[in-house]
Structure formats: structure tokens, C-alpha cells
């Protein structure tokens, strides 16, 4: 089962993207709750980036896979679990502390405060 906080390679796509939308396969963290993850064929993800020379207020700096990265909370996306591939490649888990920070920033991005 796919779980909140897990990081997978995700085929985000090229054809259906425009402008500054992410256009390639990249690591992304699952941000949907585990109940939905167990019952649904779609999940919500936030992509990761190793481009950390600028980190904006709507991004979360993390240490993952041995390097500084950021979670791009402004690029959250609902995807089919098929975008993880036939054999999803789990890269690891983010800490509860990182997931809390991501949740706080997503609340700001979506104006839920």
C-alpha cells in the first residue's frame, strides 16, 4: 500500500503540461492520507527538486537521499497511481517533522489558515 510520506519516482508527464508545470519523471512525496491511499486509484503528490539555490516561502527544504532538496508545495498534483509505474520504486520516507512542515505550507498555499 502507498502511504503518506513515502517518496516515489513519478511520471508527471510532458504532453499535458504548460508553462512552469513540471514536465518530467521526478521524485515526489505522497501527501494524501492513508485511508484515501488504501481506497482510491488516485493520490496527491508534491514533487521534489534538488535545485535549492532559491527556496521560496511555499517550498520546504529537506534532507533526502543524501542531499539537500526541496518539496515544491506550490506544484501539488492529483495523479493516477499508474503514474508510479507497474512496479513502483519507493525511494524512502520523509520524517514526520518534514511532513508536518509540508502540511503547514500547503495550508498557506491553499489559504486554509
Low-confidence stretches: none
SSE order = EEHEEEEEH
- Radius of gyration, in Å, reads 13 Å
Give the CATH architecture. Roll
Number of helices: 2
* Quaternary state of the chains: single chain
CATH domain class name:
Mainly Beta
Mean pLDDT: 91
Distance between the termini: 31 Å
- The share of residues in helices is 10-25%
Secondary structure tally: strands: 7
Number of domains: 1
CATH topology: SH3 type barrels
- The dominant shape is globular
- Biggest sheet features: 7 strands, antiparallel
Return the structural class.
alpha+beta
Strand content: 35-45%
What does this structure look like?
This protein is of the alpha+beta class. Helix content is 18%, strand content 35%. It has two helices and seven strands. The chain has helices spanning 34-39, 96-109, and strands at 6-11, 25-30, 42-49, 59-64, 67-72, 77-80, 90-93. Strands 1, 2, 3, 4, 5, 6 and 7 form a seven-stranded antiparallel β-sheet that branches. A hairpin with a 2-residue loop joins β4 (59-64) and β5. The protein is globular. 25% of the residues are buried.
